[in-house]
Amino acid sequence: MLSSLTQFETPALVISEEVALRNIERFQRHCDDKNLKLRPHIKTHKSLHFARAQIAAGASGITCQRVGEAEVMADGGIDDIFITFNILGESKLGRLRSLAERIKKLSVVADNDVVVDGLSKVFETVSKPLKILVECDTGGRRCGVQTPEGAIALAKRISELPGIVFGGLMTYPAVGGQSGVVGFMTHAKAGLEKCGIACPVVSSGGTPDMWDAQTHGNTVTEYRVGTYVFNDRSLIERKTCDWRDCAGRVVATVVSVPTKTRVIIDAGSKILTSDLLGLDGYGHIVGHREARIVELNEEHGIIQCDQNNNFKVGEQLIIIPNHICVVTNMLDNAWLARKDGNMCLLPIDARGKLN
User: Fold this and answer.
1) HSE toward the beta carbon, residue 237, CA cutoff 13 A
2) What's CA 79's distance to the chain center, in Å?
3) How far apart are CA 162 and CA 119, in angstroms?
4) Residue 168 above 60 pLDDT?
5) Cα–Cα–Cα angle for 98, 122, 97, nearest 5°?
6) Which of 45, 115, 223, 236 has the largest CB neighbor count within 10 A?
7) pLDDT digits 0-9 by tens, 218-229
8) DSSP for 324-340?
9) What angle do CA 276, 282, 288 make, to 5 degrees?
10) pLDDT tens digits, 290-315
């Protein structure tokens, strides 16, 4: 994959296009086999190149976390977008309305009356109402109404207000929490049916449990994954993927070997990030299982190794990061390694779009 490293400066992120496309196609087949719509999250790649590849493979649309990400994707021709974050504030709501006016399908989430009322106020004069899914906390302990009854009550409110329409239910469950999703959503859907409110979409997600994704007897209609496109060390530890499925790798250069057991690389927290995710060390050094990245400064990575190490100043190392999503967002561009061995710059189009 990385046969010619010296042609670019380090630290750098190199992405194997072949591996990423294989990851995209493999999980798309899984969802197709399960009669489950796939709506991948672009938060990992933040790239029009890979968003288009996901749509081409059969994804029903994409998921974004921020209005800024969605604007970039819309500028690139993606016209079915789901934003899974409560949107508040006059400026953001104005941008959201403008976005809705220029793409075919836009949907958002809400888990409280304040968000719902704000969306209704901005969209009450539009010709096409904004679709809102009620976010439900089924165990992930982020945002979300806490009970099925809370979901039903908020769905009723959405159905009564101008400019918006109830579009379904959404959750980001805890790892291993699919039973919680099924129990919560089954109860909520039954209550909505009694109220005469249709629930066309139930959206669940999470890369760690992706191979268990299914409709659960038509309870879940779509699934959202993000990290699967590149994968990382955290997913290897969860046995979601293998080393060969990791498309994104950081390349760093050894800049100093001050002692027999300490090696310094030019990749610090500004590229590897400080995410540990419960792991030991800040990434896996390919070909050096005995060595550990034990500490990060902003620009320095400190590797601890045994006295028999053969690290040399100027040597380039390949690192599989703990959490690839945050690594991507640190960079304006990555290097895309194509199947034919050539490399080209890949713009991280939505990098830094945090609002």
Assistant:
1) 15
2) 18
3) 9
4) yes
5) 10
6) 45
7) 999 999 999 999
8) HHHHHTT-SEEEEE-TT
9) 140
10) 999 999 999 999 999 998 889 999 99
User: Which conformational region is residue 218 in: left (phi greater than 0), alpha (psi within -120 to 50 degrees), or beta?
Assistant: left
Contacts of residue 155, Cβ cutoff 8 Å, sequence gap at least 6: 134, 166, 192, 195, 197, 199
For residue 113, give the DSSP letter. H
What type of residue is 247?
A: A
**Residues 247 and 20: beta-carbon distance below 8 Å:** yes
Q: Which two tokens stand for residue 222?
A: 């779509």
Q: What's CA 139's distance to the chain center, in Å? A: 19
The CA–CA distances, whole Å, from 306 to 7, 288, 311 equal: 30, 11, 11
CB-based contacts of 271-275 (< 8 A; 24+ apart in sequence): 271/11, 271/13, 271/327, 271/330, 271/331, 272/296, 272/301, 272/319, 272/321, 272/322, 272/327, 273/321, 273/322, 273/323, 273/326, 273/327, 273/330, 275/322, 275/323, 275/326
Percent of the chain with pLDDT over 70: 98
- Encoded amino acid at 128, one letter: K
Taking residue 160's Cβ as centre, other Cβ atoms within 10 Å add up to: 11
